[in-house]
Amino acid sequence: MSRAVPADDHHRDDAWQAAGPPVHHHPHHAVFTNPAYYRALYDFSTSPEILFEEQALRNGRTWSEDLTLCTGVGYLTGAVAGAAAGLRRAAVEAEPGESFKLRVSRALNNCSSVGRAGGNRLGVIAMLFSGTRSVVSHYRSGADDWINTAAAGVSTGALYRMPGGPRAAVVGGIVGGIMAGAAIVAGKPLLEEYAPNLGI
Questions:
Q1: What is any Pfam family matched here (predicted)?
Q2: Distance between CA atoms of 33 and 22, rounded to whole angstroms?
């Protein structure tokens, strides 16, 4: 004997079928459907993050940051140039009939030795230049112009060649001043045009 189904149950079944399956709410539904949320999520600020007020008032890098940057760039440049010179030397010293393994070994030895020497030499020069430039700027009340660069070039050349005697120090100072002047005349306009945010 079948039991009669109440009329309220029929109405509930009809309403459920008309409404379709239940839709579950997802807490991140707006993130997945609105592209604006993606842009806001990955839109990072390009301005520097300042922790202290002194950093916001400071103009340019500190002497330690400048020293680290110049020394690192100088060492890397010298190492790359020395490695290229070592590779060229290895190609010149290669003899006919040598095995490939011997040629590779000679190239690696020359690149490492010449590259290490070049990196150390140029790194020391860059460190002396940055240090003397910061000292000159400090005694000129923080001025940053071509006088600092020229004085740093002369001082760097003289200090670097000082172990060779007074005459070598004078010649080194002259060469350093000429190179600093060439960098002021030719290098700085190029940096201001192609890399204005570098701050050198």
A1: Tim17
A2: 19
In this prediction, residue 85 has a pLDDT band, given cuts at 50, 70 and 90, of very high
With contact defined as beta carbons under 8 Å apart, do 191 and 167 qualify? no
Question: What domain count does the chain have?
Answer: 2
DSSP secondary structure of 78-143: HHHHHHHHHHHHHHHH--TT--HHHHHHHHHHHHHHHHHHHHHHHHHHHHHHHHHHHHHHHHTTT-
Instruction: Determine if residue 138 is left, alpha or beta; phi over 0 gives left, psi from -120 to 50 gives alpha, anything else beta.
Output: alpha
* CB-CB neighbours of 171 under 10 Å: 15
Letter for the amino acid at 57? Answer: L
In the block, residue with structure tokens 């990196």: 119
Taking alpha carbons only, the member of 175, 77, 183 closest to residue 120 is: 77
User: Counting beta carbons within 10 angstroms of the beta carbon of residue 76, is it exposed (0 to 12), middle (13 to 18) or buried (19 or more)?
Assistant: middle
Percent of the chain with pLDDT over 90: 36
3-class DSSP assignment, residue 179? helix
d(CA 35, CA 39): 7
pTM for the whole structure: 0.66
Domain enclosing residue 70, as ranges: 60-141
pLDDT at 14 over 70: no
Please check whether residues 172 and 99 belong to one and the same domain: no
